[in-house]
Amino acid sequence: MFSVLIELIPLSIMEGLILSLPAMGIMVSFRLFNTPDLTPDGTFTLGACITAVLVSLGAPLPLVFLIVALSCGLVGAFNRFISYSLNIHPLLAGIIVLTMLFSVYFRIMGTSNIALFEYNMLFAKTDEYFGNYAIALAACLMTFTGLHLYFKTNSGLVFRAMGQTPELGKGYGFSHLKFSLLAGTLTSTLTGISGSLMAQSQEFVDVNMGIGILVQALASMMIGEVIIGAHTLFRQLLAPAIGALIYQFIASFIISLGLPSTDLKLMTGVIVITVIGLRRYTGRD
Length: 285
Prior knowledge:
This protein has 285 residues and is an all-alpha fold. The chain has helices spanning 2-18, 20-32, 40-56, 61-85, 90-109, 130-150, 154-164, 166-171, 176-202, 213-228, 233-256, 264-281, and strands at residues 113-115, 204-206. Helix 1 packs across helix 6 and helix 10 (213-228) crosses helix 11.
């Protein structure tokens, strides 16, 4: 068991760093803007699908990331726009967008999966190359730093105020729609870039690869909050990143016990329920 767990540690670190991006993005929507958002399950896969097609066509990686960011950001903004303008509950709007995206994946790729083994991408082909972890860590740190710097600006302060007390913000003449669109864009952009990084790391893309990303990111966020708290902006942003790493180690431990990989979704739900219980009984709700 321990030998299997040790072998899985490098993979846990890599995936934890990559999946810290959607965890931080979802924290922005759920915590800072106080709005549930289901689109990460879809934009994660969308980012991966776009990456697979563009890489196979020989597109340069900067262009790949730019197109992924713009496409996924527009999906997030569209979700918030129809929710706000048509007075649709955010959860229902998310379900509608997710349903639409499933057809978009096939339109983009033309098939349900694409292998990328023969293409040179951001990560080296060997798992033992330290540069792979440096790249994933850099993506995590850049996301954390960028969000932290933004939320310290006047616009960021208004964003946080609109999320907690939208009526007060509207009273001062700020547009709730504007910041709602920004929240959706940030969340989906980060999730899409994470999907692109995961596609390049795994060298394989499947239309179902994003299922469960939302729950996994929420579990990561709550695990981090239980461990380091969320009393300051710094801790609010750091918690999902730390939680994503811990979550991956927990998943690796479950696999090392000999449970089939198909049980991971079940265990994800168990982890979320357990963490919610811990939050309640430790007074961190």
